[in-house]
Design goal:
Helices cover 22% and strands 41% of the residues. By secondary structure, the protein is α+β, with helices and mostly antiparallel strands. A hairpin with a 7-residue loop joins strand 4 and strand 5. GO terms for molecular function: abscisic acid binding; protein phosphatase inhibitor activity; signaling receptor activity.
Length: 182
């Protein structure tokens, strides 16, 4: 959950959280999403367990997903396998940092999702913070370095829309399943 620098799979459209952009230098974008769901629940469902939920909530995009290495801690790798709706077959991401109490993590794209074809490197930093109303605010920062010659179009907007769709899909699931991820 992927081609410019958000690391999650979109639930309602045909793009992933890593969307291809373009510039030969390192760039970044940020995005915030408000949710009525409490931060710990949204973080667990929309970030840490998205590999379990994505095939259920977005089967038209994510054929399957699973851990490849590790138990969910730093260094763990998970893989998302996509349907023909995506321009690439798979994406692997490695967890670089996690603070479950603060609902914060950072991951790096390590295979697929445009690595080597359009993107040299891509990382995503996600923090889900409590909001005053009992809900939460998802803060995403995506940093990426494009390969020389790759052109930027409207991919940042697509990436932000994709990340929003991911968290809104997780939010809808959690509202419909109030006992999940407590």
């Amino acid at each position: 959950i992927t081609t410019v620098a958000a690391h999650i799979i979109c639930a309602g459209c045909t793009c992933t959280s890593l969307i291809i952009i373009a510039m030969a230098s390192t760039n970044s974008w940020t995005h915030e999403i408000e949710s009525p769901v409490a931060a710990p629940r949204l973080f667990r469902a929309g970030v840490m367990d998205w590999h379990t939920l994505a095939p259920k909530l977005a089967p038209q995009i994510v054929a399957s997903a699973h851990p490849v290495e590790g138990e969910g801690g730093i260094g763990s790798v998970r893989q998302f396998n996509f349907t023909s709706a995506m321009p690439f077959n798979l994406m692997k991401e490695r967890l670089e940092f996690i603070d479950a109490e603060k609902c914060e993590c950072k991951s790096a794209l390590i295979e697929g999702g445009g690595i080597g074809t359009a993107i040299e490197t891509a990382t995503s930093h996600i923090k889900v913070e409590p909001a005053a109303n009992g809900g939460s605010v998802v803060k995403v920062e995506s940093t990426y370095k494009l390969l020389p010659g790759v052109e930027v179009k409207d991919e940042i907007t697509k990436a932000k829309d994709s990340v929003t769709a991911i968290f809104k899909a997780a939010e809808a699931y959690l509202i419909a399943n109030p006992d999940s991820y407590n």
